Amino acid sequence: MVNRLAQSQSLYLRKHAENPIDWWPWCDEALEAARSENKPIFLSIGYSSCHWCTVMEGEAFSDRAIAQYMNSQFIPIKVDREERPDIDSIYMQTLQMMTGQGGWPLNVFLTPDERVPFYGGTYFPVEPRYGRPGFLEVLQAIRRFYDTEKGKVEAFKAEILGNLQQTAALSGVTAELNREIFQKGLELNTGIVAGHNPGPSFPMIPYAELALRGTRFNFESKYDSKQVCNQRGLDLALGGIYDHVAGGFHRYTVDGTWTVPHFEKMLYDNGQIVEYLANLWSAGIQEPAFETAIAGTVEWLKREMTAPTGYFYAAQDADSFNTSEEVEPEEGAFYVWTYAELEALLTAEELAEIKAQFTVSRSGNFEGKNVLQRRHPGKLSNTVETALAKLFQVRYGGNTDSVKTFPPARNNQEAKNDSWPGRIPAVTDTKMIAAWNSLMISGLARAAAVFGNLEYLELAVTTANFILENQWTDGRFQRLNYDGQSAVTAQSEDYALFVKALLDLHQASLTLGNGEEAKQLPNSQFWLEKAVQVQEEFDKFLWSVELGGYYNTAKDASGDLLVRERSYIDNATPAANGIAIASLVRLALLGQNLEYLDRAQQGLQAFSSIVQDAPQACPSLLSAIDWYQHSTLIRTSPDQISGLISQYYPTAVFQIEADLPEGVIGLVCECLTCKEPAKSQERLLEEILQSQTRV
Fold first, then answer.
1. How many Cα atoms within 13 Å fall on the side-chain side of residue 482?
2. Can you tell me the distance from the alpha carbon of 216 to that of 219, in angstroms, rounded to the nearest whole number?
3. pLDDT tens, residue by residue, 438-494
4. How many CB atoms lie within 10 A of CB 303?
5. Torsion-angle region of residue 564: left (phi > 0), alpha (psi -120 to 50) or beta?
6. Residue 597 has what pLDDT?
């Protein structure tokens, strides 16, 4: 017997289709049922590759006693946070207000009338353990509280709703975003990247990118920003967070040494990391492991994460099956190695070299098995490369030449029942998410420009074209695509990140797109025109005329929300408003349209109090301030751009200038003012550097 989620397009929701709980998707019918029956809503939010979401699905949500009580006393609603990040953002914020912490699965109890939370938590076990009560006990206590403590419920509602509305409106007080605030923000955020703790280690790319921006200034600081940024690159490229056998980055490591990952691979992490490592290289931190990790990630992307139609899949699970007879998948099974396996697969010389270069031992570093973490930077020897190729063959059932594409397992049944030539792979969530694809497009475009790699650009172009050709329904941008069917009206992160991706393609295409081999690619002007069109729609439907900045959702798509939020806090992905404001500055430079610059200024003023009071929460807004204060337009020839675009000028855009005055090789403009025409390479570089660091 299946429930309502069986017909859902979401892999996460379908994973709960056989639960005895009578789940509803988030819809008007479910909300009306709660009101008419006066039952509290049990709202559970997660995503397909979330380990503890999977655990709770197999435990509490599969328990018949829990289901019987849940079905009679609550209206249970399931939400995929990757489909509806707007809903997730609101209720995650309320959980943090109530408990001081958050995470997924996100489980909150809402009043049936206004959908305001009055209790919440994350993982609930079936029986009491980990210092947590059993879930049935929680449900019974919550229902008693709702029925007998109406006054307290109303007080909770008023407090939570008031806090939400206050947070959404911000303070209304603006601050002057001067150089001191920018410098303070740089130092605080660099300190976050530099910090060491024994707990989980996340990429935190928005913070690392801001720290890298700081390397070009001579600010006094307690941190060596170049060393901090280099170390973050080494942690990523050498650590167990990177899949050294087959490429791609896992979501984070569970320790402070970057050794043992939480094994799911998310597209959004990989896009950001590729861009960051390319920027490190362009900034002169040219560690061979960075280039290797980028190349390996692109190979993984082509092999396992690219749909036949050209877009990128969303994620791969952390858990997989060792055998088809297993009932539950095991975390990391696809990726880890016993010492006995390594002894049997490798020659004595290869094993000795692997042990010298990686954290490999008989006892292992993860539940008796080995996660590969490099001990040293630099290039790997031919012996190590041969050994890694043997491990690839065991995992995939073929070598890298023969396994160019590896079909996804779309669910646990496919994973267990299909005939795999190597190990049983983790399940892949094959939906297309516009925002996450945009992050990957940007990463590929930047890597293409830095390394002069046309293949990277071609891969990015294919995906961008898929979005342009398939993600508009009735004239509106759509966030998701399920096997050719677009769904869910785009949100601010989709617009902001896709505009950025289009502008990044414009820049990368200025030189790479003009060669004989790239004749089939759109020219750079095509991408700029598309960026302008998407920005116009973004401004029309999500810009806040009264407050400034962009709402997460359009007015005609937010009727089911408690509040309309404007995203400014960076998490695993950058906040939409920081990205959007930076793009407005870029559009102003490239299109000579000062309306974009005015809007960027209004956006920065809207969030100025947050930047002043809590700069550690919003590195992307500080990056936008960097763009606003140091914006630079470089007008020069394609030959000059080829040499300049691979260098690190984080607030510069390039434009081909066909009619330069005689003897002039380039013009450098600071927003509304142009410098003296540069007649030598030395002078051009000097003017660019001055503009990038000006007061």
1. 11
2. 9
3. 999 999 999 999 999 999 999 999 999 999 999 999 999 999 999 999 999 999 999
4. 18
5. beta
6. 96
Length of the chain: 695
Q: How far apart are CA 595 and CA 436, in angstroms?
A: 28
Which residues pair with residue 366 across a beta bridge? 369
List 110's β-bridge partners, or say none. 41, 117
Do the Cβ atoms of 267 and 317 come closer than 8 Å?
Answer: no
pLDDT tier for residue 560 given thresholds of 50, 70 and 90? confident
- Residue 500, class by beta-carbon neighbours within 10 Å (0-12 exposed, 13-18 middle, 19+ buried)? buried
Residue type, 150: K
Residue located via tokens 């646990």: 412
Do 75 and 41 contact (CB within 8 A), yes or no? yes
What is the Cα 281 distance to its own chain's centre? 21
Distances (CA, A) of 579 to 270, 450, 539, 582, 619: 18, 21, 14, 5, 10
Measure the CA–CA gap between 203 and 263, rounded to whole angstroms. 14
Beta bridge partners, 517, equal none
The answer to whether 86 and 549 have CB atoms below 8 angstroms apart is no
DSSP 3-state of 632: strand
Residue 274 parent element (H or E):
helix 267-282
SS3 573: coil
pLDDT at 501 over 90: yes
pLDDT at 514 over 80: no
Q: Could you tell me if 280 and 272 are in contact, meaning their C-beta atoms sit under 8 angstroms apart?
A: no
Distance CA 208, CA 195 (A): 12
- Using the 8-state DSSP alphabet, how is residue 409 labeled? B
Q: Under DSSP, is residue 689 helix (H, G, I), strand (E, B) or coil?
A: helix
Sheet holding 24-25: strands in order across?
A: 24-25, 75-80, 41-46, 106-110, 117-121
Six-digit token pair at 674? 């142009």
CB contact at 8 A, 237 and 194? no
Phi and psi based region of residue 426 (left: phi greater than 0; alpha: psi -120 to 50; beta: remaining): beta
Encoded tokens for 241: 């967070």
Q: Quote the tokens at residue 300.
A: 């993984």
Count of beta carbons in the 10 Å neighbourhood of residue 338? 13
Q: Can you tell me the distance from the alpha carbon of 249 to that of 275, in angstroms, rounded to the nearest whole number?
A: 13
pLDDT at 671: 74
